[in-house]
Amino acid sequence: MSKLLNISEATTIAIHSLALIAYEDRQLNANEISRITAFSKNHLSKVLQTLVKQGYLSSVRGPRGGFTLSVDASKLTLLEIFEVFEGKIKNNFCFGHYENCPFENCIFGDIIDDVTVQFKEAFGNRTIADVRMKKAHAK
Fold first, then answer.
1. 139 has pLDDT over 60
2. How many Cβ atoms sit within 10 Å of the Cβ of residue 11?
């Protein structure tokens, strides 16, 4: 089965980890995050380090170390994190990448641009603070 939207595992790990750290409101280490989310610790660690380098997380090394948010979760949008890992989203995207496209107008019409605008709006309006945890993980 095909998906209309493909979000990389790195982006998924980043958003889940940021939401979990924001929700817990305390330092969480990679082992805890991996256990809770079931993501590979190795891949998770790479993503967390990218988030540290980009200024979204602070980290403390050592046995009592972990990660905390460096930004306000209510101002950090899913779109911002998506673009860190996937790249900036462009409108007027052409699937064929044809400089000399033989067609006068895009075969897909405005559908691709419309979906892109809707995606950017939906992810741009949802913040890490908006993500809710299941009751099983409630504080």
1. no
2. 18
Is the confidence at residue 7, as pLDDT, over 50? Answer: yes
More confident residue, 136 or 17: 17
Per the structure block, which two tokens stand in for 40?
């590979």
Helix (H, G, I), strand (E, B) or coil at 94: coil
User: What letter would DSSP give residue 60?
Assistant: E
Q: How far is CA 10 from CA 48, 59, 134, in A?
A: 10, 18, 22
Residue 77 has φ and ψ, to the nearest 5°, of -90, 155
Class of the domain covering 9-87+127-137: mainly alpha
Confidence of residue 26 (pLDDT cuts 50, 70, 90): confident
Could you tell me the pTM of the whole model?
Answer: 0.86
Domain boundaries, the chain: 9-87+127-137
Strand spans (E) along 3-93: 57-60, 66-69
CA torsion, ordered 111, 75, 55, 5, to nearest 10 deg: -20
Any residues with CB less than 8 A from the CB of 43 and at least 6 apart, and which?
Answer: 9, 10, 13
